[in-house]
Amino acid sequence: MHYFSQRGRGLLASFVLCLVSGTLLAQQQPYDIFPEAKPPFYRIRYEASTKPGELIFPASYTLWIPPGVQRLRG
After folding, report:
1. CA distance 45 to 57
2. Where are the domains of the chain?
């Protein structure tokens, strides 16, 4: 006796694939934890705000300043 028809097995397989693919394709933590930045690398992180008009997602920036550079312009 068959528990699932061919169509039922296909639907079940599709459902399981959707559940698993979301986890596999999602970014894995700890993207909010970065290794220590030592010169010539400098790192800053801005946390998200709950206030309207301010940053809604946290943001991290890393800056590399080549050795010997005396002045930065930007």
Report:
1. 11
2. 6-64
Question: What does the DSSP 8-state code read for residue 15?
Answer: H
- Could you tell me the mean pLDDT of each successive run of 10 residues in the chain, 74 residues long? 68 73 60 78 91 92 92 88
DSSP H or E stretch at residue 60: strand 59-64
Q: How far is CA 48 from the centre of its chain?
A: 15
Q: What are the residues whose beta carbons fall under 8 Å from the beta carbon of 48, sequence distance 6 or more?
A: 55, 56, 57, 58
The values of phi and psi at residue 16, to 5°, are -65, -40
Q: H or E element: which one contains 46?
A: strand 41-46
d(CA 44, CA 71): 20
